[in-house]
């Protein structure tokens, strides 16, 4: 009987020891934080995977995600700068970077998502109210700049206060309510047509200016070239006359003969009928006498 009591006592002690050891161990998995709380206060954070120890019955464990999370906001109505009501939905990529601050403020992931929803909604509403609807749907650069600005502002709102790091906020869709689509699209078509007409008018005006300038340049260039050509011709004729005079003054008789022969060429061109005295010097020279 006494031996049985010893056996039962040993089993109870072993069971108590097992329970004590198991309550002292906790496992940290990949992609999670284990926050060790002592009387409700965070005393340490374990982020490396493995088996860890804690004080049983005094310290407790809270698990928080370490990996990046994606939160999708529900569609919300927003008014653009040109007073267009649109439905906007977006998603946010975020993670917990300071579990201590997060536990003290948000405490739970669902509460953190609510904080993100409020910050993103207020920022998106303010940013989209500063641009026209046509810019949102047609200019990809504007959409990109808006996403960067929204991400930066939401990050600043949540990082230090709640221990939440927002890495990206993206607008997925900006739709008009069904009852407003047709009127808005017609207005956009009219605006684009007016813009096209303006561009065509500006293009025609620029074309006329360029053509007039080109024509004026051509006329000025031709006039300058003609003036220069006349100047060169005059100088050439003057130089030719000087050379002729120098050559003719060297032998006046030869010059007289040359001039006479030149006059024959001119006079007899076309075989005309000419009546001249037979004894005239001009005739004798023509006949070789």
Automatic annotation (TrEMBL):
Keyword list, A-Z: Membrane, Transmembrane, Transmembrane helix
Compartment(s) where it occurs, according to its Swiss-Prot or TrEMBL record: Membrane
Similarity remark: Belongs to the band 7/mec-2 family. HflC subfamily.
Superkingdom of the source species: Bacteria
Domain Band: 23-188
Pfam families listed in its UniProt record: Band_7
Entry GO terms, CC: membrane
Name the UniProt record assigns to this protein: Protein HflC
Matching InterPro entries: Band_7, Band_7/SPFH_dom_sf, HflC
Described function: HflC and HflK could regulate a protease.
PANTHER family recorded: MODULATOR OF FTSH PROTEASE HFLC
Transmembrane segments: 6-28
């Amino acid at each position: 009987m006494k031996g049985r009591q010893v056996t039962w006592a040993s089993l109870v002690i072993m069971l108590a020891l097992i329970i004590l050891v198991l309550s002292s161990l906790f496992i940290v998995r990949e992609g999670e934080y284990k926050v060790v709380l002592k009387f409700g206060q965070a005393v340490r954070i374990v982020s490396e995977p493995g088996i860890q120890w804690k004080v049983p019955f005094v310290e407790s464990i809270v698990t928080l995600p370490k990996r990046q999370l994606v939160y999708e906001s529900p569609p919300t109505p927003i008014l653009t700068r040109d007073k267009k009501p649109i439905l906007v939905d977006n998603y946010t990529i975020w993670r917990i970077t300071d579990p201590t601050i997060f536990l003290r403020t948000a405490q739970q992931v669902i509460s953190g998502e609510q904080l993100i929803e409020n910050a993103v909604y207020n920022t998106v509403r303010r940013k989209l109210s500063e641009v026209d609807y046509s810019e949102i749907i047609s200019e990809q650069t504007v959409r990109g700049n808006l996403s960067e600005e929204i991400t930066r502002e939401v990050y600043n709102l949540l990082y230090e206060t709640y221990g939440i790091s927002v890495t990206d906020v993206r607008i997925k869709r900006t739709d008009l309510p069904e009852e407003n689509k047709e009127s808005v699209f017609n207005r956009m078509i009219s605006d684009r047509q007016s813009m096209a007409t303006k561009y065509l008018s500006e293009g025609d005006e620029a074309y006329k200016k360029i053509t007039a300038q080109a024509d004026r340049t051509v006329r000025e260039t031709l006039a300058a070239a003609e003036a220069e050509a006349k100047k060169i011709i005059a100088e050439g004729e003057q130089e030719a006359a000087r050379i002729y005079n120098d050559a003719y003054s060297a032998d006046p008789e030869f010059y007289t003969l040359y001039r006479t022969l030149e006059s024959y060429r001119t006079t007899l061109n076309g075989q005309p009928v000419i009546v001249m005295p037979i004894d005239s010097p001009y005739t004798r020279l023509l006949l070789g006498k």
